[in-house]
Amino acid sequence: MIDFGFDKLALIGAVALIVIGPERLPRVARTVGHLLGKAQRYVADVKAEVNRSIELEELKKMKTHVEEAARDVEQTVHKEFNEANQAFEQTWSEATSGLDEASYESSAYSTALPAPGYRPPKKNWRLKRGATPQWYKQREGVRRHVQSGAARVARFRPPRRPFP
């Protein structure tokens, strides 16, 4: 930027005092200061906008690199999964190829029937209703048992003291 020393500013002030006059000089100086402030703010805004655009470009580049890396990892995982799946299918087919078809079908029917003496568990809908743990309900003060109004009042009533 232009370098103004004290001698140059004094010379400009003297010329302005002679040309503008002492009556209008304070108003003109205020206006010039106001315009210089606006110019400085404008330059600062432009610099900030340029910095933001540069940072945005860097972030976009970083985003593309991360997306490419994620795609590479995904492709590698799919490839490894497919290879493992094919190896498992091949091993499974080799292991099950020696089984007798009749024994396989009879074993499938025998496992489908329930074992003697087996009863399915009872489904208690009250237990299934809430998945919130009991310790959380107790800490938050959630009522877990139904209680009548009179029982609730009796529960929280202060104990009676005998008369002296």
What does this structure look like?
- Keywords: Cell inner membrane, Cell membrane, Membrane, Protein transport, Translocation, Transmembrane, Transmembrane helix, Transport.
- GO terms for molecular function: protein transmembrane transporter activity.
- This is Sec-independent protein translocase protein TatB.
- Belongs to the TatB family.
- It holds the Pfam family TatA_B_E.
- By secondary structure, the protein is mainly alpha-helical.
- Among the domains are: 53 residues, Single alpha-helices involved in coiled-coils or other helix-helix interfaces (Up-down Bundle), CATH 1.20.5; 41 residues.
- Helices cover 73% and strands 0% of the residues.
- The chain is built from six helices and no strands.
- The chain is flat.
- The mean pLDDT is 82.
Order of helices and strands: HHHHHH
CATH architecture name of the domain at 1-53: Up-down Bundle
Gross morphology is flat
Our count of helices gives: 6
Q: What is the mean predicted local confidence, pLDDT?
A: 82
User: Rg to the nearest angstrom?
Assistant: 43 Å
What topology does this entry show?
Blueprint: H1 6-20, H2 25-97, H3 101-112, H4 125-129, H5 134-140, H6 149-156
Features:
6 helices, 73% helix, single chain, Single alpha-helices involved in coiled-coils or other helix-helix interfaces
The gist of it:
It is found in: Cell membrane; Membrane. The chain is mainly α and 164 residues long. It is built from 6 helices and no strands.
